[in-house]
Prior knowledge:
The complex is a heterodimer of chains A (202) and B (200).
Chain A: E1 22-26, H1 38-43, H2 53-58, H3 62-77, H4 85-99, H5 102-116, H6 119-128, H7 136-149, H8 157-165, H9 170-193, E2 194-198
Antiparallel strand pairs in A: 1-2
Chain B: H1 8-13, H2 20-26, H3 29-43, H4 53-66, H5 70-82, H6 87-99, H7 128-150, H8 157-165, H9 170-197
Helix pairs in contact in B: 3-9, 4-5, 4-6, 4-7, 4-9, 7-8, 7-9
Amino acid sequence: xxxxxxxxxxxxxxxxxxxxxxxxxxxxxxxxxxxxxxxxxxxxxxxxxxxxxxxxxxxxxxxxxxxxxxxxxxxxxxxxxxxxxxxxxxxxxxxxxxxxxxxxxxxxxxxxxxxxxxxxxxxxxxxxxxxxxxxxxxxxxxxxxxxxxxxxxxxxxxxxxxxxxxxxxxxxxxxxxxxxxxxxxxxxxxxxxxxxxxxxxx
Amino acid sequence: xxxxxxxxxxxxxxxxxxxxxxxxxxxxxxxxxxxxxxxxxxxxxxxxxxxxxxxxxxxxxxxxxxxxxxxxxxxxxxxxxxxxxxxxxxxxxxxxxxxxxxxxxxxxxxxxxxxxxxxxxxxxxxxxxxxxxxxxxxxxxxxxxxxxxxxxxxxxxxxxxxxxxxxxxxxxxxxxxxxxxxxxxxxxxxxxxxxxxxxx
Lengths: 202, 200
């Protein structure tokens, strides 16, 4: 079998950050569902992800995918104290906005808006970018996420201090660090293995 | 970082058992265990496929070097040496890490309202002498790695075609992409936690 780059079907390329649902079209061939072994299927962790071309592409390295997914879930879903879910999603959306991943930003801006009920602030982050004024606590989280996302890192003690002044304890600060760091992982996969497409309809 | 059992992030941050950061990491036990499991999957895989240990550690050293993460780069360089890499290959990884270093993220958006945020930057190409040392497969990988590290929004199908042309299969590219993406996470967790630990 000769591997090739896929040409996505005709689609509308999104040209602005949005909270709308987007599709993701792969540039490399995902595994065919009927060619997946038990190991491939188990690496999806959630069986429903077999519908996703993104996860079926990553399932080509199942051990890396499964470990990635379990890391992701604990960073964002672990309910034991630390940073509220809304603000973990804010760090994810910020990182995606700064790196330029429209797909990741759409998903996590939706989550941030849902959990915080601050749709206007989340939309301002998408529209104006990471320098938007979102109030001191969110500004501190955005600034820390951006500093950690820069290469080389610009994250320093002043970011820890500002987060503490905003009421974050060290577990919450560690959650900011992990959420922003994780999206430096996710953005690079999403951006480089395929592209976003606007969905039909509203 | 010579074995694969000791937690790599703990080792790189310098987290001692019973320390405040040890307690914080213990509150996210699955993230801690599976960051380590990802490290194992990518750097000590049970089924390595076509991506050699030397390729994995050379890429690891390059990614860490591009981040200016000196201690982390040194740990991957040590593993590269253990994998039997030539002195010339180790020197080439060090040299390109210095020569290709810049500041990210930059890159372009699809034409439209975001074009005003387009930021120009280096599109790194491996020089002829280094290309001879790295070989075509690793040279193509390093050019891709540089894009992923500094300007991932410039990704395009042509970049993947260049990897296929250099002998990377689709599955190899998934593994290569995971190595770069995972290290982009690992290096930031280490950087962030070190600063948190230094601010008691």
